[in-house]
Amino acid sequence: MSFPVIDQTQTPLLSLGFSVPSKEALVKQYVGKKLHQVRTPRLIVDRSIVTKNCRRLGEISKQQGVKVRVHVKTHKTVEATEIELDAAGTDAIVVSTLAEAWYLIESHLTASKKLNDVLLGLPVSPDKFDDVFELAQRVPKFSIFIDHIQTLDALESYYEAKFGNDDSHRIHAFMKVECGNARAGAAINNEDSLELARRLVSSKVVVVEGLYTHAGHSYACRDNESAVAFLQAERDAAINYREFLAKNGVHIKNCSIGATPTVMAAGVATKQVLEGITELHAGAFAFMDRQQMATSLADTSDVAISVLARVASRYPERGSILLDAGGLAFSKDGSPQGGFGEIIGREHWKLDKIAQEHGVVTEVPLEDFEDAPVGKVFLVRPNHCCLTAACFEFYLIIENGGDEIVDVWVPVRGW
Amino acid sequence: MSFPVIDQTQTPLLSLGFSVPSKEALVKQYVGKKLHQVRTPRLIVDRSIVTKNCRRLGEISKQQGVKVRVHVKTHKTVEATEIELDAAGTDAIVVSTLAEAWYLIESHLTASKKLNDVLLGLPVSPDKFDDVFELAQRVPKFSIFIDHIQTLDALESYYEAKFGNDDSHRIHAFMKVECGNARAGAAINNEDSLELARRLVSSKVVVVEGLYTHAGHSYACRDNESAVAFLQAERDAAINYREFLAKNGVHIKNCSIGATPTVMAAGVATKQVLEGITELHAGAFAFMDRQQMATSLADTSDVAISVLARVASRYPERGSILLDAGGLAFSKDGSPQGGFGEIIGREHWKLDKIAQEHGVVTEVPLEDFEDAPVGKVFLVRPNHCCLTAACFEFYLIIENGGDEIVDVWVPVRGW
């Protein structure tokens, strides 16, 4: 079926000359300062923990003999991507936006060949094809997701209009398949999915990379055993999908599976659990957070980020302290433990109520007020690292739990 | 009691040369384009509705004979502030961050005398005094909140160290008082609050502006009657507070009260309901959202903002459509109606599940898929305008429900 070529949309980042805040100016302003000397709220990243977490992923990859693809949506920075690639021993990333793709592909990581393989991790809409083919010129391998036949129709129309019969611009694509969380992905045992797979493998504009699943529902695991069970289920779903296609004459070999809990679980699973899997992907593992702690596969020593906040006021009569950090610093995401984060070193306090800029801490015992004067800074462990990090224009970097700033990272924002 | 002068923190915006994206470049890129031609997700603002909403506030102000102070935290832009000031007939704003204060005070609004009165709407911590006194030089009146005696102690120490006996730099301050939502504010019938009030009125570094309350809990109202009851309760709480102080010999005349639901309720309340109140404040009224619709004081025609999103994929077999907008476009805030927003013109669809960049729409009837191809744009009415607007580096402006872009507004971010 033909699909009209539609208007193409631009990544605003480009016409704005990559207008992220200047790292140089920020480094000059912040490096060498202590945490209590900076404006709050602010995201603090412990680089040593990021490195440790990425090495853990690298060890899992080596132990299981499976390549990893690291998700950069959690941090959206060049610096953390470099640590991920180095420590996890890979040259492949997945991005959640085209802005991330541009930012990283135009960085030194591609020039230095550390980054060779970029996947856009959301089914691409046809208005973005200009960007897709432009980016594909700038990195050895650029891949997209296709999980509906209209997208392939649109891609073929676009390709023909742009390149005619020249087949040298074929684009790499994963077929995204649904494996239980009903977020994205083509359904199994479905005639339309089969038709899509058939069309993909025979398409003149696509190079099929494999099947791709994401076990988002694995966040519900609460111990190693259930995490391994989720991993096993995700692996089985991917392999079943491959067999469903094969039985119907469509052969797609590679299977990429993962989510931080299941990939962490791969570290405690036998090799059989991953049989037939060619790639693991994960994102939140680099920063970690309370949601990951709830899965039991991470503890406080694995959480690399925290929100620096200050005591803005104190209400001993109601056992409450007001922090100058609210929904725009923590995000409104929850976690199974409750609250919007926990105050490091004061875990018995509750951060149960937040407004845009207000963090209302309750259940503060009277005796705790003496050491919590107005202006005092605290670090707060967030619920969900991806959404919390996205609140900040830049991150201040520390090392080994210290309180001196050693670097500043500037993430890319927007779409 | 003396409080040490602590290290001062800087607003990063300044050393970065106000590094918000360039309005000029964005206007060039977007004005004249149709909505379907721009990258998604993107915040769309209907300027006509903003103006209408601000005029409604102006009418309430005139009808009640009470000055209004408009909150700019919802939009954080110069353009919407100007509409608010013009249409609501005031020269007073409240900001939620020092970045907002800098951005607006350094804009043409102060130079043109449209903006003369700026209040920082969060109890200020002592590391921010440098900024406070610097900003106070740049606008006729700059006010802060004080609701704990340590803050006043710290302010007096700072003032003495900086200005000695020169009393020409006294800073305007509201005493923030608690009126039922236990977020911020000094408690009533409390010896410490009384001591703070006594110290404030006799302080040589402060000019007391009045008492200030915020009826955040009024969002629970569901009809005009209960909204007026919340307004009455907030007014009574403020007046009671004033009387509690007066009975104890501390006389503070002015009372500023409000939140969007109670201020909207003032439009249907008698004059007696506001007796003794000298100022009303509100913020979300300019944009409105589903949370405000839930209070019954706004309907769909009052909601000025929406999130433009595209069909990224389609899963008819599970009645689901994937939009290319998730938690980083809508925020994760909820609303009493449920879901993370509603698709305009397709209100029977459900947006009940979102991930970072995925908007999973469910309950899509099979017959609706024909008119929802991949790439089609939809507008989504958000739950909470303040948190949704904060997701975007810039807003595209339309008028009268049209689909042509007429302007671009650039909000200020961070702290």
TrEMBL record, chains A, B:
Record organism: Syncephalastrum racemosum (Filamentous fungus)
Keywords for this protein: Detoxification, Lyase, Metal-binding, Pyridoxal phosphate, Zinc
UniProt family annotation: Belongs to the DSD1 family.
Molecular function terms from GO: D-serine ammonia-lyase activity; metal ion binding
Top-tier EC class: lyase
Reported function: Catalyzes the conversion of D-serine to pyruvate and ammonia. May play a role in D-serine detoxification.
Pfam families per the UniProt record, alphabetical: Ala_racemase_N, D-ser_dehydrat
Domain D-serine dehydratase-like: 304-399
Enzyme Commission identifier(s): 4.3.1.18
UniProt cofactor(s): pyridoxal 5'-phosphate; Zn(2+)
GO BP annotation list: D-serine catabolic process; response to toxic substance
PANTHER family reported in the protein's UniProt record: D-SERINE DEHYDRATASE (PTHR28004:SF2), ZGC:162816-RELATED (PTHR28004)
Protein name in the entry: D-serine dehydratase
